[in-house]
Every structure is written in C-alpha cells, then in structure tokens.
Amino acid sequence: MTGNSTHRVVIVGGGFGGLMAAQKLAGSGLDITLIDRRNHHLFQPLLYQVATAALTTSDIAWPIRSLVRGKNDIKTLLGSVAGVDKEARQVILEDGARVPYDSLILATGARHAYFGHDEWEPNAPGLKTLEDATAIRRRLLLAFEQAEREPDEARRKALLTFVIIGAGPTGVELAGTIVELAEASLRGEFRNIRPEEARVVLIEAADRVLLNFVPELSAYALEALRKLGVEVELGHAVTEIDPSGVVYGGKRLETKTVIWAAGVQASPAAKWLGVESDRAGRVKVNPDLTVPGYPDIFVIGDTALALRADGRPVPGVGDAAKQGGKHAAATIKARVAGETPPTFVYKHAGDLATIGKRAAVIDFGWLKLKGFLAWWVWGVAHIYFLIGVKNRLFVSITWLLQLLSGRRSARLITQGDASGRWEHRP
Amino acid sequence: MTGNSTHRVVIVGGGFGGLMAAQKLAGSGLDITLIDRRNHHLFQPLLYQVATAALTTSDIAWPIRSLVRGKNDIKTLLGSVAGVDKEARQVILEDGARVPYDSLILATGARHAYFGHDEWEPNAPGLKTLEDATAIRRRLLLAFEQAEREPDEARRKALLTFVIIGAGPTGVELAGTIVELAEASLRGEFRNIRPEEARVVLIEAADRVLLNFVPELSAYALEALRKLGVEVELGHAVTEIDPSGVVYGGKRLETKTVIWAAGVQASPAAKWLGVESDRAGRVKVNPDLTVPGYPDIFVIGDTALALRADGRPVPGVGDAAKQGGKHAAATIKARVAGETPPTFVYKHAGDLATIGKRAAVIDFGWLKLKGFLAWWVWGVAHIYFLIGVKNRLFVSITWLLQLLSGRRSARLITQGDASGRWEHRP
C-alpha cells in the first residue's frame, strides 16, 4: 500500500505454500504482504487427530503473524479476498479494500467437493479447517452420547455406525482412529452401550485403498484396517446420503454419522483471475507456476494444476505447496535482481499414512516401509514438522500417553446444541 | 431408570458441586445418575485464561464420563433438564424423557446476568462456558486485527479500547491479562498499530475492586492494576452499552469490545421446582441444603441461596459448591443407612485473585498475602486443583513459558466470520 518503488509482493493464503513463500522472500528488500481470512496457519496432516479428540486445536495451529514476528518486511492482514484486478494489479478484499502488488502469489488451497452433490454437505461434513475438525469431533462424540440414551435398538445401531467416504490418507486415518476412539478411549465409560461394538465403514469407489501408494502398500493397509475392525467396502461409489443413511452399490446403510473424505475442489482463484481451470477448479499454470499471460501472478499448491515434465500433475500435498512457494519466492527475487529465474522441478518426497496407532505405510520411492516401524517414522516425522518446541513437546507427550493408556484428552463437545440434537439436521 | 429397590440418586450438573456429590456417593450401593447438558466438567476459575489465549480449552475441561470411568454405579447422561415433577419424583428432560429419583441434587450453576438489560448481552458477552471463552478470545484478537487494517484514527482507537464491567475476581483477572496479551504477546507483530497502546478500562459500580476481599487487599489490587496500565473507574454504574461504546457516570467511551463480569443469575432450578427464589434466581434452601417441603431435593452451589448461622449467605464460589455436594452426598448416605445426617457448616477456605502474571492477592482469613509470592501460591494452588497429571504438566509448562517469553499459544480466531466482521453485530 506504500507508494514507493520497493517491489511489492502480495501473498494470499498462509498455508504451507504461502507461508513458505513469505519466509523465503523475507529479508530481500521487498515489501511483502501476507493475506489470509484466518489468523492461523494450520498443520492439516494432523487435522484428523483433532477431529477424533486426540489433539487439541492449538497443538496444530499457530497465529500467522507470530510465525513472521521478527520479519519486519512482512505485513500480515486478516482479510477475505473477493477478486483480483489483473490490469490495475490489485487484490480486492471483501470489504472493498484494494491491496496493490507488483508480484502476486495465490496459495489459497482447496475445500472438499461433493461432485455435484452439494446437498450432501450437511450430512457428510469434510475435514479442512479447525472448525471442520471440532464439528466432526462433536458429531462423533454426540453419537455415542445419544446411543447411550436411545432405547430403540435399530436407532442405537445407526448411531453407532460411522461411515467414512473415500479411502485416501485422510479417510484411512480417520477410520483407524475412530475405531481406537471407541475401543480404547470410550470403552468402560458407558452403561447402556458398548462403544467397542461401534461399526466403522470405509467406502471407496476405487478397487483399493490409498490409490497414491503402490499396490503392495495398499494391500497391506487394507489388511491392517480390517484387522483393526474397519469394514472396508471397495469398488462402490456412494449414490445417496441423507440424514439417516447412505446408499452405495445398491445397498442402504443406516447411519447418523458420515464423514466426507472423497474429493476436493480448489479455492476460487481461477474465478478471481478469470482464467481457465480444470474440473476441480484448479488454475492451469505454466511450468514456472505463473498464470498464462500474467507472468506477475503465481498460483501454487492445491489451487494450481501444474504439470511435471512427464505430463503427470504435481500432487495436492503440503510438500508440493512448500516447493511451489519456494520456487515463486526464488523467481521473484531473481527477477527483481535481474537474474535468470530458476526452473521449477517438483521432487516427490514420499507418501505417508497411518492406520491406527500401531501401523503405517510409507513410500519414499527408494524406501517402502509398513507396520509399527513405519508408524514410529511417521510419528517422528510429523513431530519434526510441527512448529515450536512447545507444540512438539505437547504432541509427543500426548501421543505417548495415548499409546500407553488409550486415553484421549480433547474429548470436548463444544459449539453444539447442548440438548444433544444434531446441528444442521432436521 | 431401573425398577428395583436400590435408592436412586439423580444429580443434575457436573460442575464442582455435582461432580463432588457423585464421587462421594459412588461405592455406597446406590444407583446414581449424573445428568449434564455438556459432556465436560469445566474448571471455571481459569476460564479467563482461555478467553485471553493463554490456555487451550482441553487444559481446563474433562469429559464428565471419563472422570467417573471406574465407578460403575454412576451412569452419565448428556441431556438438558426441562423440569422436575416433584410429586412423581422424576426429572423431565427436554426431549420428554423422564428420569425417576428417590433423592435429587440440583447443581446447575449460574449464568451472567444483566440486571434487566438483556439487550446488552450481544455487545457485552459474559464468561461462564468454553464457548463464552473462545467467543471472547475471538473478539479480543479480532479487534487487534481490525485495528491493523483501520485507516480512521478514531475507529482504530475504539478498536484498541477494551472495557470490562465489574471488578470482582473475573473482571480483575481479565483486565490484567488483556494488558499482558497486548504488551507481551502481540507487541512487535503488527505494522500499523502498536498493540501495547491498547487501553484497558475496568468499570466498577462499587467504590473498590474485589469487594469480597478486605479493603487493604482491594487497595493493593487497585494499585497493582494501575501499575500494569489498567484504567480503573470506581463508583460508576454502566448505564448504556451499544455496538460502538458504553456510557458510565454520564461519560461515553467509544469501544468495540466490552466484556461483562458484573453479575450472575442462577440457573432456572427454582422454576423447575416451582419454589421461591431470590432476585438472582437462587433457590432459598434450608440449612441442610434441601428445598423447604421437599427433603428429598437438594440444591447446591451457585443456584442455591443458603444462609450461614450468622445470616450471611454462602458465597457463590467453587469450594462452596464442593462442600454442598459433599454434604448432600453424606446426608443421602446417612438417611439410606438410617443414621443421623450431618449438619452443614460452610467453611470459607479463602479468596484468591491474580493481577497479571506478577501479582495476586490471597485472603485465607488467618493469612493474607499479596504480590509475587501470592502469585506463586495462586499458581501452585490452581495447578493442584486441575485434574490429571497431563493437564497439570501442560498448564505448568505453558505458564512457565509465558512467564519467560510472554508468548501465548492459543491465539486462535475460530468459529467467527473469517472476513473479520463482528458476529452478533450489525
């Protein structure tokens, strides 16, 4: 917003990509503005642990402005973007304010998508924000509470049936953790129901779980899920979701709790820019992550469709967003310095997913791991990626106590109707 | 709900009083049902620390059913009470379910009250539940975010003015902590404002703060507050609260954030019972905490008006509720055993309040403390009263880190409008 000649970079989104870009640009003599509609950076890979009452919200979220505290060339703004004026080079906020830029980085992520069935959302919430996580936690815990008070057996069974749609990492991790919530954490605390008898059903349209892994690890994960007690239904697309159940493969399953982990839709960055997007709403970007025709605009992370040299898309994972942020920052710095910008080459670090607290699958390409050792590697890696000593310490202790006792510390039903009614439901 | 001849005790409310009653009754061969509309017990004395982003929700709240996990004679129900059928001896829940009792303990607490000005609530929220705390946290943090983006100086000043109404322990603790939030935690993180210039105004109708303490400690607390930078306005009742300010003593103060800590109203237990209550809605109980004419119904804690031998009321503090719960449990056990019930004699343990993180006042009657030593005693006492090793450890570490660095770990704006608009406000 200053009128001087310093090159102004505006970054929209304080997730993995945007935050990385801001950190890499800091100290380069540029005028950096980081805009997010949330005040916090979120470590999404552990969001399912908040949804299942294992971790608390502040374990995996940090105020963005505290993360760039010492970097005086970064200005953090809480605001929602409504559009981009590409000609005037201004980001337009919802309240009408305009933030001018010389370079723009859009790193606004994705939300869950219902493939044309938006009417399913109230009955099958997805998991992308802290509020999503506490809402799912409320539903899970309320289902057990209501089952305890339900005299009708069929309705009690429906309350104790939990359906997860989509067997990617989030779906697999949720399914495993819900079984453990019921079996280890809630066992022995109810008088009319046995929480360990809860059914957890994981429905996947493809013919295997964890499609992004090699088939061998998918097979192991399937076996580990079934051993935990998860009912895995492969090769069935869900065709109906209503307040009392789901239909898949022609079968109806009565359930009061459905979680959606089956697909994502990019943020409306393509609409703000008025440019081409794919079916998932992702902006089709050049190999250097800029928007065709607008070399001053970068789109990175889940909201971009970037193709690798072999034609495969860069995957929608946190590490790809970070690499994108790093690349955009380096390109802007090189341009300002009059140097040749680097070429973007995405390096896939690997895929990780846990199945409960005893097993995981890891595919680093050069190294494939499964089982309890993989679970430890996963745990250590995730603690490493958390920010700050305190969060690492608290999450480590929490996981250790859970491993030993099965108890969960964040089993709070909040923001819901205290009478036990479903929010959003008739 | 069983039809056998075991004496059935129903306890409504899982706060300090109800939980104590349940724990004392457990193992006595009775059939105990504990009903709460929340699934968690809350350590209310530290709620102001959640509201000011120092602690996170799960630090001070525990699932009620996990607290009575091993006690198989206690059944925990999540439900809202709608009434009591005194003749049929049944508690009526909101969904129409009826829970029969032989003895009933109502321990349903209090909410904040606006002395006939309920229209003030949207502009001056109170602090009694976890949701209240996260809502106040959101308002406090949003005010700084909005001030950072506000070009108009007068409006920026109003955004950076925080008003607390009522200088009891909650009001005093909030005022001191908000100053520290601004001065120690947010300092250096903004570019357009200086958070440490925020004004914190504490308004009290009486002529001193902390009325429940001896005047000497009130005077010390006043001095400590002023030293911290809190503007204390004594002897002024607030006469108007609207979305843009408050009026007290004929003066208008422009502010966007008002917190109400000036009065409470008992839960509607008197209405459920159809019995006499005082102006604050408290049920006037016999010296043994039973309801006149209904020796099988006890009302304890903040929702009861119990008089001590000298005619002074038992105060509305957590320890009084615990003593009430203990007494009701002992009385029921004695009656079932055919023994003489004990007499209730309230013993006042003392009063504690902190002023920021460097000072506190403590009045144990036989011992009066103030200053940094009192703050340590307060801290140790509160950690002792938390439940579980993990919570004690986490709160200790959090406080220690805050004492050293001033940083706060739970600075999350959640459940609010991401665009930065006020919820509840036009």
From TrEMBL, chains A, B:
Keywords: FAD, Flavoprotein, NAD, Oxidoreductase, Transit peptide. InterPro entries: FAD/NAD-bd_sf (IPR036188), FAD/NAD-binding_dom (IPR023753), NDH-2 (IPR045024), NDH2-like_C (IPR054585). Coiled coil: none annotated. The keyword Transit peptide applies. It is an enzyme of class 1 (oxidoreductase). Residues 8-312 form the FAD/NAD(P)-binding domain. It catalyses: a quinone + NADH + H(+) = a quinol + NAD(+). One of its GO terms (molecular function) is NADH dehydrogenase (quinone) (non-electrogenic) activity. It comes from the Bacteria. The keyword Cell membrane does not apply. Its EC number is 1.6.5.9. Residues 348-407 form the External alternative NADH-ubiquinone oxidoreductase-like C-terminal domain. Belongs to the NADH dehydrogenase family. PANTHER family: EXTERNAL NADH-UBIQUINONE OXIDOREDUCTASE 1, MITOCHONDRIAL-RELATED (PTHR43706:SF47), NADH DEHYDROGENASE (PTHR43706). This is NADH:ubiquinone reductase (non-electrogenic).
